[in-house]
Design a protein that fits this description.
Radius of gyration of chain A: 15 Å
Pfam family, one (chains A, B): CYTH
Oligomer: homodimer
Distance between the termini of chain A: 36 Å
Protein name (chains A, B): CYTH domain-containing protein
CATH class of chain A: Mainly Beta
Number of strands of chain A: 9
InterPro entries (chains A, B): CYTH-like_dom_sf (IPR033469), CYTH_domain (IPR023577), NeuTTM/CthTTM-like (IPR012042)
Strand order of the largest sheet of chain A: 1-5-4-3-2-6-7-8
Organism (chains A, B): Banduia mediterranea
Largest sheet of chain A: 8 strands, antiparallel, barrel
Helix content of chain A: 10-25%
CATH topology of chain A: Hypothetical Protein Pfu-838710-001
Chain lengths: 156, 156
């Protein structure tokens, strides 16, 4: 078990792209409706698949469990057991000694770009790059689990 | 992935107990409400814990995935992430070359005793022991997932 502390921000413009050093397409789905006690996610990145279980608490610190599973299991789970789907490309960049992950969403969530930073504790300080916009850590609509059910392009 | 074919029956009386050769206490909980596409179960048996994902199709044949996970992960999942809980003792016995599993439920499901047999295909024949009662394979109330939410002692 890990306690994950991450903060999430909207992204302004495209200036971050020049600094990104890696891009990783991700396909993921959820075995649980949003709104319960936990999210159960199946994620495929390249040839690797993982099952991830997270406490569904809005905010930045929550219990998280992750297990690698066979790709041959993950594909039929994504195809027929998952109730919602999120496809995105995750970009990585370094800023002032910290790693940022920038998710550029696709499909029904196209247009949404979000940046996340993982921190050692809830009070940790970090430098905000110029392209970082409003913080949305506590806004449940931006949970990937919520985006699988109510995608960005269909927000009221 | 495995396709699991099992049939489930109510149990009459206690005569089966003389034949049982093993008893295994099981504690399990579910990360998903019943009624969705899949069930996600955490089960602890002795020092071992597994995560099990099953397509939620009523009937005897359904896709199933199972992964061993650390006991240290399973305990907090059972304690705080699971939305329903089922405790039971599983007994094993052999009858005419086939293994029967007899689940004696505890807690809110006390009084319920169910026997299951796993078969190689849906048409496979088997001998019904005298203590086997009505078949409940297709009755979703007897799913452990359903029993976690609506236990036997609270049935209308």
């Amino acid at each position: 078990m890990a306690i994950e502390i991450e903060r999430k921000f909207l992204v302004r413009g495209d200036s971050w792209r020049a600094q990104a050093y890696r891009a990783q397409p991700m396909r993921q789905g959820y075995l649980v409706e949003p709104g319960g006690r936990a999210s159960v996610r199946v994620r495929v990145v390249g040839e690797h698949a993982h099952l991830n279980i997270k406490a569904a608490i809005v905010g930045s610190a929550r219990a998280e469990y992750e297990y690698e599973i066979p790709l041959a299991d993950a594909e039929p789970m994504l195809a027929s057991l998952c109730i919602g789907r999120v496809d995105k490309v995750r970009h990585y960049l370094e800023h002032d000694g910290r790693t940022w992950e920038i998710d550029v969403f696709e499909g029904d969530n196209a247009g949404l770009v979000v940046a996340e930073i993982e921190l050692e504790d809830e009070e940790a300080s970090f430098t905000r790059p110029a392209w970082v916009g409003d913080e949305v850590t506590d806004d449940a609509r931006y949970y990937n689990h919520a985006l699988a059910q109510t995608p960005y392009t269909r927000w009221p």
